[in-house]
Amino acid sequence: MGSSTAEREAPRPPDGGWGWVVLIGCFVVTGFSYAFPKAVSVYFKELMRDFGCGYSDTAWISSIMLAMLYGSGPVCSIMVNKFGCRPVMLLGGLLASAGMISASFTTNIIQLYMTAGVLTGIGLALNFQPSLIMIGTYFDKRRPLANGLAAAGSPVFLSVLSPLGQVLVEKYGWRGGFLIMGGLLLNCCTCGAIMRPLLGKLKKVPAGVEANAQELKEMLPSKTGKENNGVKKSQKPPKKKLLDFSVLRDRNLVIYIIAKFIVVLGLFVPTILLVNYAKDQGVPDRDAAFLLSIIGFVDIFARPTCGVVAGLSWVRPKIPYFFSIALIFNGLTDVCSARNTSYMGLVIFCVFFGLSYGMVGALQFEVLMGIVGTGGFSSALGLVLLFEAVGVLIGPPSAGRLVDAFKNYELIFYMAGSELLTAGVFLATASYCCTGRKKSRDSPNVEEPDVEEEVNHTNHDSNNAHQAALKDEES
């Protein structure tokens, strides 16, 4: 009997199974990554009092944290492509926790920038991006729903972390609160541990077939082989790129990057400054912190619902336009609520903001996956986050500077709203006018025939020729 060798087939997304456990881990990681920079804002009043700084100075903490979350994207992509998702997430959980624990011992605002901002932000980035990659690995048909459910982690954690932070700051001060938050971030390590790589099934190949295929491959002319003294060198398999910049050739991706850069200039501004605004209007501290919980409660239902709608057969091909509607809705909410000063008016704003913000959060990465497919998602996500980091770093501090200069919160709502409206209109217009027919990249588009395909064709032609020869002899 001839021996056989085992080859591993390319893994196919199971759309379930262990993927649901992975989804739970993504839910927790997304919750910490997006909610934590906003929930930290409940400590700003105490920090302003202890360090004698203004709104823009404290807003830099959240901005740096978000900038690290986005700006570390290319580095995270390289690490994931080299080491895999699980080790990177374990390291990220340790860094995020160490950053907040170190921040509890700081003595000035600059040290806070380096610990709570830079170190914690990098740790969250090393958790966030691999979790999104794992969703694309485990889900295909149910991917819009999976993205919506994972994105729901942000509002759930925002609803919990904001009032929890207010309780901690009243009971233990901001230093004790930071220390406890650092301990909570260790849960990211647990989420990283469950990110099991998806492996394909083993396929047995008879040794004789493998030898014949190898012999035919050697007989076929090599397209990339080079002649050296009459000896042809065999083609080496291409090495996997740690960061593939070729994805930027896609016009749809360039449009998406420009739109997202404009989006992040104003998307996080209302949530970061909302608590301080309410406190300045005379709202009690706990009621002011509860405003973020209202956004979170509405967002909890908005994201999964939007994910279900995005998965419908007649909606999925038009997700970029659906995303544009969500951006315009969010921008109109900011602009129309600029003059709200009463607590009830702020509550109404939080309801509509939570709904529109949830739509944006549920759709943003589904749009990106639809553009580049699962194969190029890791590199594309890293590059997109890098560009977004610049906008995140500029947006909230600029809004804080406006408040410090004019003592008027109305301006930041107009600023944030106009940026979201601009992004929504630009994305819809560019997608309609400049991109043409959308090409799906989820299935590989092979430009040149593979060597194995040539071998199969050669075998098939040889069999046909042999059968024809036998028929001729019989006749």
TrEMBL record:
The chain crosses the membrane at residues 17-37, 58-80, 86-105, 112-139, 145-164, 176-195, 253-277, 289-313, 319-336, 343-365, 377-399, 411-432. Residues 437-475 are annotated as: Disordered. The keyword Amino-acid biosynthesis does not apply. InterPro entries: MCT (IPR004743), MFS (IPR011701), MFS_dom (IPR020846), MFS_trans_sf (IPR036259), Proton-linked_MCT (IPR050327). One of its GO terms (molecular function) is monocarboxylic acid transmembrane transporter activity. Residues 19-435 form the Major facilitator superfamily (MFS) profile domain. It is a multi-pass membrane protein. Keywords: Cell membrane, Membrane, Symport, Transmembrane, Transmembrane helix, Transport. CDD domains: MFS_MCT3_4 (cd17430). It is found in: Basolateral cell membrane. GO terms for cellular component: basolateral plasma membrane. NCBIfam families: 2A0113 (TIGR00892). This is Monocarboxylate transporter 3. It comes from Clupea harengus (Atlantic herring). The gene is slc16a8.
